[in-house]
Write a structure and sequence with these properties.
Elements (H helix, E strand, L loop, with lengths): L2 H8 L7 H13 L2 H16 L12 H10 L15 E4 L6 E5 L1 H9 L4 H17 L7
Antiparallel strand pairs: 1-2
Helix pairs in contact: 1-2
């Protein structure tokens, strides 16, 4: 970004005099674009966190936090501590099913939320656990 673009981006601050605008523009121009974008996103998230943002279908942050508390802060599937909670929902109905850890939530998604695929994968793992790896020749 050049200084002219930086001045254009901060001209909404009309309370600043021209010297302050140029100083701010030089400061802005020296910051890499990726860093400026990261700062904008971070600021946006902080400003909007308290709003009634919806997860899936009609689940506010407060409702999500209550669900996590009801689950004792644990993933429903693996019982790991929820450090990065993910709201699991049915893709057909949009209804929230529960709060999962990222691995379990992505796992369900990778199996297309299909119980028969998940059961087949579990059976496969149990078979391997019981009999070991078959000898394969290439």
């Amino acid at each position: 970004m050049n200084i002219g673009e930086a001045i254009h981006n901060i001209t909404s601050n009309t309370n600043l005099d021209i010297k302050e605008l140029r100083k701010e523009a030089k400061k802005q121009a020296s910051i890499p674009e990726a860093q400026r974008n990261k700062e904008r996103v971070s600021k946006y998230r902080k400003e909007n966190y308290k709003r009634a943002y919806k997860f899936g279908k009609n689940l506010t942050f407060a409702e999500r936090d209550q669900m996590i508390q009801n689950q004792l802060g644990l993933c429903i599937i693996c019982s790991d501590q929820l450090k990065d909670p993910h709201v699991d929902h049915c893709h057909k109905t949009g209804k929230v099913r529960g709060i999962l850890c990222p691995k379990c939530n992505f796992g369900l998604g990778n199996f297309n939320d299909d119980p028969s695929r998940i059961e087949a994968a579990a059976a496969y793992l149990r078979l391997y656990e019981r009999f070991g790896s078959p000898e394969l020749t290439l």
